[in-house]
Amino acid sequence: MSLIVQKYGGTSVGSVERIQNVADRVIAARRQGHELVVVVSAMSGETDRLLGLARGIRANIDGRELDVLLSTGEQVTIALLAMALEAKGCPARSYTGAQVQILTDSAHNKARIRDIDGARVRRDLADGKVVVVAGFQGVDEMGNITTLGRGGSDTTAVALATALKADECQIFTDVDGVYTTDPRVVPKARRLDRITFEEMLEMASLGSKVLQIRAVEFAGKYNVPLRVLSSFQEGEGTLITFEEESMEQALISGIAFNQNEAQLTVAGVPDQPGVAYRLLGAVADANIEVDMIVQNVGADGTTDFTFTVHRNDFEKALGIVHSRAEALGARQVTGDDKIVKISIVGVGMRSHAGIASKMFEALAAEGINIRMISTSEIKISVVVDEKYLELGVRALHDAFELEQPRSGQ
Amino acid sequence: MSLIVQKYGGTSVGSVERIQNVADRVIAARRQGHELVVVVSAMSGETDRLLGLARGIRANIDGRELDVLLSTGEQVTIALLAMALEAKGCPARSYTGAQVQILTDSAHNKARIRDIDGARVRRDLADGKVVVVAGFQGVDEMGNITTLGRGGSDTTAVALATALKADECQIFTDVDGVYTTDPRVVPKARRLDRITFEEMLEMASLGSKVLQIRAVEFAGKYNVPLRVLSSFQEGEGTLITFEEESMEQALISGIAFNQNEAQLTVAGVPDQPGVAYRLLGAVADANIEVDMIVQNVGADGTTDFTFTVHRNDFEKALGIVHSRAEALGARQVTGDDKIVKISIVGVGMRSHAGIASKMFEALAAEGINIRMISTSEIKISVVVDEKYLELGVRALHDAFELEQPRSGQ
After folding, report:
1. Where are the alpha helices (DSSP H) in A127-164?
2. Which positions in chain B touch A82 (Cβ < 8 Å)?
3. Are B76 and A50 within 8 A, CB to CB?
4. Nearest CB to B65: which of A19, A53, A83?
């Protein structure tokens, strides 16, 4: 018998019928002999309804009272799911974050979990009950209700799995697993049976929005096996674990891409200390997030400096850079918001030379010009013209033979 | 500086605009130098919405999970009111029943308050904050969320006022106080400045649904001055207190009536022990509530037995009584659902003879036949034909000169 923590998001519990379906899934897992803790989000639409009420009260909503308000969303779901389980003959018990106790710091609206007291949950499990826990919320040392911020329910599930030493943490979403790339772009994209935490982090941060980054980090840190599955169809999903010996052979696990970026280049900047700071500091001061930053070795005492921002921030960033460039004595400022970033991700590339050149070769063969390159230990990202997105992703998917199950799986 | 507990019901907080109005009222009271604890209900309609969700899950909804669900209603209101107060520059802090702690027994859906820990509330008051508390809910010793059942928010307010030794508990409703009788029947009905707890209990149970009986009992037991006021208009409302010397002169404080009753009479029942039980036991077994019961002294070894039930239960009760009457050897069973009960209420009648005869005289002068009479220490009720309701109430209102402020006020 193993202990499994399951998490169902807002879409999965978006109606009374869907809550009944979740109850059926939970009961099926229980019949297989597992002990179950189920973490749920607010029903889809409920958080927006509550935010609408709050915005009717005041313009700026944040702080302690917003958490009191929003935490009711999951509380409704836990009660309904526990009722549904009991109606189907499965003993169940619901807990708010405060009841569990999921102890957090006092940073309202973006609290971090400090500790979880699993005693009550363990007692109920020993009594044969399914335990239903409200995601996204906790309580601080003073007894104030807190919320964890975006994607907090995933984090709740992973943290509970860690505290309870669960055998697996299963995240149910509206996709049936993690794919080698977006199946809408590459129809023959393949669901991965397994992926490492590090690869998942790169995939997540690069635009494969299956799991919240924080939850993956947490699961990796505490070595909780994490599985992504579909709420709406059967299947084994994708298991996210640590790298194993047998996975060494795999080179590339997937291809991520991001269509929401724009590129800014400041050419002919004096090659001096402090230039990068003076440029990017102004951008950061305007609350614009910067993604890639590339600066090449300079020549003739000047250098070219390129970075990417979210497409929505392009005009604003361009204005800031223009005003700074003059003071820096730059030769030229150019920008383009018709670009995409494509990345290949895989722990295998650490120990294999030639991955980068294979990538560039595949793109060149299709006549795709690479505008920027940036690498980390387990990924290589390139920026290309927007029009090459589909062509580039498909060419790479073929070149790395991702439609074939990778060795070691 | 006095400490005041205010309570606003669902209609008073039924929209974002109304919550803003409540915030204005609270701030106005604070400007007068008072310390304030504010108890609120769920926004009107919210409890029904939640019940609708629960009924989508299962047919029979009760128990622990229903309380987890319903308690979110008040939690939304406390957050919104605290936000509104802070937006208007008034420091405020919200608490759920569990946070306060309002400790109850574990009778879910109809829990009773055992104890209130006022420490956190007192600390916030000392810090100059307005404390906003969720009505209707508490927490049991195990940390489970409980609800107090019908009218629970009034009870929360009175219990908090007791625990905090508040100077006054103010219940804001959609009427501006307690009237000598229903102003829709007697246009010159007068708002009472004061009424005793006992009178209020009789008025409440007789159909003047201004306050929940349980809250009045509680306030009386712990001697918390209770005031009924309107959320929507200015005014002093009605203060409910213990009888004082100066109130002795008042004879009658008000006239209550109930249009929802039906009368059943079993005539010629053998005048023997156990007859009442055998008749009413069967009615009670069918979950029919009995209001008045009148049995006169028998003659010729038989007696007549009359009682009243809610009009909705009339046919069912008549069937039960018919079936029993035969076995009891009764002569005849009659019933009538075209009746009303009219009651005069007042602590003054204790020490004054002649109140009853004055009542009967006033009704006789209008040609109104009295079908039943029942009395308690501070009220006299009569049952008359339904068509005489308005005429009877107006005649009594005139006879006892209720349009004049009573002496001692």
Report:
1. 152-163
2. 64-65, 68
3. yes
4. A83
Q: Comparing C-alpha atoms, which of B241, B258, B320, B321 is closest to residue B292?
A: B258
Q: Is B294 annotated as a binding residue?
A: no
The neighbour count for residue B274, using CB atoms within 10 Å, is 10
Q: Which of B224, B153, B225, B148 is nearest to B193 (CA)?
A: B225
Whole-angstrom distance, CA of residue A403 vs CA of residue A183: 11
Q: Do B53 and A80 touch (CB under 8 A)?
A: yes
Its pTM stands at: 0.77
Write the pLDDT tens digit of every residue in B165-174. Answer: 999 999 998 8
> Domain A3-173 classified CATH 3.40.1160.10?
yes
CB contact under 8 A, B83 and A61: yes
How far apart, in whole angstroms, are the C-alpha atoms of residue B81 and residue B87?
10
The CA distance from A111 to the nearest CA of chain B, in Å, is: 18
Q: Show residues of chain B in contact with A78, CB under 8 Å.
A: 68
CB contact under 8 A, A79 and B20: no
Strand partners, A156: none
Rounded distance between C-alpha atoms, residue A31 and residue A139, angstroms? 33
| Residue B64, both tokens | 């622990």
Question: For the segment A54-101, what is each residue's pLDDT rounded down to a tens digit?
Answer: 999 988 887 999 999 999 999 999 999 999 999 999 999 999 999 999
Pairwise CB contact (< 8 Å): A58 & B87: yes
How big is the CA angle at B162 (ends B157 and B164), to the nearest 5 degrees? Answer: 95
Q: Give this complex's ipTM.
A: 0.73
Q: Give the tokens for residue A88.
A: 């189907």
